[in-house]
Amino acid sequence: MVFTTVAQFVRANINKIKGPDEFWRKRRIFRLTAHFIGRKRNCYSLAIRGAHRALQYATKGRHLKKKDMKDLWLQRVSAGSEEHGVPFPVLQKGLIRSDVLLSQKTLSELATWEPRTFKALTQLAWTKGVEDGFNRIETLGEPPKNVVTRGMLTKEVYLSDDETKK
Amino acid sequence: MRNIFERVKQWNTLTRIWHLYDAKWQDPFDSAKVIQKYLKGLHKPIYHPLADCGDHVVVINCKEIAMRGDEWRKRAYFHHTGYAGGGTYTLAWELHDKNPLMIMKKAVYRSMKGNLQRRYTMERLHLYAEENVPQDIIENISSVIPQLRDVPMRLDRMPEDQVKGYPKIWDLPKDYVVR
């Protein structure tokens, strides 16, 4: 296209130079601030500052939400394991050594919705702790007797003299 | 809900439980950390900070709490009336003489983070100086929080014959002056 004057050029390319129409440009911001209170909602110069701040908070919040959920799962799992007399560190270490690689989230859901399954896991961890000699594991009391770990199956059994004679 | 036991199990999970804690010879600050867990419901796998899942805790024998070392003489509680020069420092033993529940109450209160929920959580804490608890409180109790330390037997309260019959390793010489 050929433009004979600058004014004609500007009129044809107004959107490229100025950006979108003022009304619609502002409206995009006002959509973000529609739920704010006070002048931040309707006065553009305040609204755009509020919108910027809100988006910054949202970015931080996405990370914080993940952290909060992790903390909550940790709290729930340790509460569940202490119900069965096993401190959380013992549960965690015992399960990892038994090759039970469940996430914190899964464990917390098991503790709430499948308490018997969760109890079995705590007992497994406890038995593993006794087998591997965790620090101060004997203070937890009598370990459960209904658990068979992989280590027990491969362990050599030494019989006393009387039993070998039979 | 499959059967009546499942129903009771759910009911047990979602109701408030009343716990009993005997503070005799216990450190109030260590005890507070345990008690606040029950008050807020942190001991339940269904815990959520916005869910109202905390339990009641009845603490007896608050008068008989124990503090380590010089704490009774050295620990000071600050109070300010709001007027100029209105600040006072009360030593722990003085405060305990005035009100035997105050140290335990402040210990639990300070063990929790300051938020809007703290005052309501504190209302679920019931403190008693001695063992006599009103009947309407005691009939709710269905659980006991284990003590942090065993209460040791005091020599002056042991039965006479047990003290006499205790095996001796050696006798003091007759001319030894006991100071």
UniProtKB/TrEMBL annotation, chain A:
One of its GO terms (biological process) is translation. InterPro entries: Ribosomal_bL20, Ribosomal_protein_bL20_C. One of its GO terms (cellular component) is ribonucleoprotein complex. It comes from the Eukaryota. GO terms for molecular function: rRNA binding; structural constituent of ribosome. Keywords: Ribonucleoprotein, Ribosomal protein. PANTHER family: 39S RIBOSOMAL PROTEIN L20. Belongs to the bacterial ribosomal protein bL20 family. This is 39S ribosomal protein L20, mitochondrial. It comes from Laodelphax striatellus (Small brown planthopper). The lineage of its organism: Eukaryota, Metazoa, Ecdysozoa, Arthropoda, Hexapoda.
TrEMBL record, chain B:
Transmembrane segments: none annotated. GO terms for molecular function: mRNA binding; structural constituent of ribosome. Keywords: Ribonucleoprotein, Ribosomal protein. One of its GO terms (cellular component) is mitochondrial large ribosomal subunit. GO terms for biological process: negative regulation of translation; translation. InterPro entries: Ribosomal_uL13, Ribosomal_uL13_bac-type, Ribosomal_uL13_sf. This is 39S ribosomal protein L13, mitochondrial. It comes from Laodelphax striatellus.
